[in-house]
Write a structure and sequence with these properties.
This protein has 350 residues and is an alpha/beta fold. The chain has 14 helices and 12 strands. The strands form 2 sheets. A 6-stranded parallel sheet has the order 3-2-1-4-5-6. The chain has a 6-stranded parallel sheet with strand order 9-8-7-10-11-12, sandwiched between helices.
């Protein structure tokens, strides 16, 4: 049997499918499981996953529609089962699942915008449940495929020896010894569909860094991809002492340095899920998102949120993130205070 996992919706979403990969491997031990991704940084993550036979990378965002169609058709009728990772509530993902041509095409039946996004192209479905975590939704979908219950496991990311050495060298270059209090920040997140509105202000990250350095003698590491360098630079312009920008060549190297942090302070982002996979203490800054979906899975975590009456307002749908408030747009994240976040960090570091 050949199974294709279609994990196109994001890095964090792909990581939250890793417990389901174990489930598929356990239930179909002789199956060959391939994974289709469109974010190259995931290549290293899944080539080190023992369950995966082949990582298929295709840059759908930058390739032409004709090139992408030809690539998808090259995979047609090669798989008995194909699975759209939750959440993938877009017509493009459902069309891809149809064109792959698997007899069993698995996907969630979404509560919102399912029909107009061609959810009916899939023939093995369970209904979305807003009270469940993404990991749980994916596992229930796989249970629908196999007919067998399972016990959820942790997210999986495997570090290489080379990445561990890279992390050691980075800390040596910054003169940070392993006995120091190291705290990671991720000030970025996806910008697709207006999701940059989920970001906490860089000025507040800078103020938090100052409090942690001056009151707890901490070292602050700023994480994020190349497209987020300007966010790290904004923080460094405000506060420099014991605060360093992290630059790496891959997501695995980033994860290896993150592993050196005692606590990780992050927006709702892919690196929040990397931190969960690494079993870090996580302080998650949650604004409009339904935290049931995305809280750090099977690790120690604290949620910094205002718990407004209008929250959560973001559910899985193709429409861009919007705010209906008339007083302060995205008040849920804009008015999240440094003192509140600092208090959450102190619950981990004392």
């Amino acid at each position: 049997m050949k199974i294709l996992v279609i994990a196109l919706s994001g890095i964090g979403d792909a990581l939250m499918f890793t417990p389901s990969l174990k489930k598929l491997s356990d239930e179909f031990p002789s199956a060959k499981i391939d994974i289709l991704i469109m974010y190259k940084s995931l290549t290293d993550v899944f080539t080190t996953n023992k369950v995966i036979s082949n990582v298929l990378y295709w840059d759908f965002l930058n390739k032409s529609k004709l090139e992408s169609l030809a690539f998808i058709l090259s995979l047609r009728n090669k798989y008995e089962i194909s699975i759209n990772v939750y959440p993938s509530n877009r017509k493009e993902y459902n069309l891809i699942n149809l064109l792959i041509g698997a007899k069993k095409r698995a996907s969630i039946k979404y509560l919102r915008k399912d029909f107009i996004n061609f959810g009916f192209f899939n023939n093995c479905r369970i209904t979305e449940n807003d009270s469940l975590h993404n990991v749980e939704e994916n596992l229930l979908l796989c249970e629908k495929i196999s007919g067998k219950k399972t016990i959820p496991t942790s997210l999986e990311i495997n570090l290489s020896n080379a990445s561990e050495l890279f992390a050691d060298d980075f800390l040596k270059q910054k003169n940070i010894s392993s006995d120091k209090l190291i705290i990671g920040f991720h000030p970025g997140c996806s910008i697709l569909k207006n999701h940059d509105k989920r970001r906490w202000e860089t000025s507040k990250f800078a103020e938090l860094a100052k409090k942690l350095v001056e009151e707890k003698n901490a070292f602050i590491l700023l994480f994020g991809g190349p497209e987020e360098n300007y966010l790290k630079e904004e923080i460094l312009r405000s506060y420099l002492k014991n605060t360093f920008s992290v630059t790496t060549n891959s997501l695995i190297e980033t994860a290896a340095i993150m592993k050196r942090c005692s606590t990780f302070v992050t927006n709702d982002s892919s690196l929040m899920h990397v931190a969960a996979a690494l079993k870090l203490n996580v302080v998650a800054l949650i604004g409009p998102t339904n935290k049931n979906y995305i809280y750090p899975w099977q690790t120690n975590y604290k949620i910094a949120t205002l718990e407004l009456d209008c929250s959560p307002c973001f559910y899985y749908s193709p429409k861009p993130l919007t705010c209906s408030r008339k007083d302060v747009q995205f008040k849920c994240i804009q008015e999240l205070t440094v003192d509140l976040v600092y208090s959450k960090v102190l619950e981990f570091i004392g």
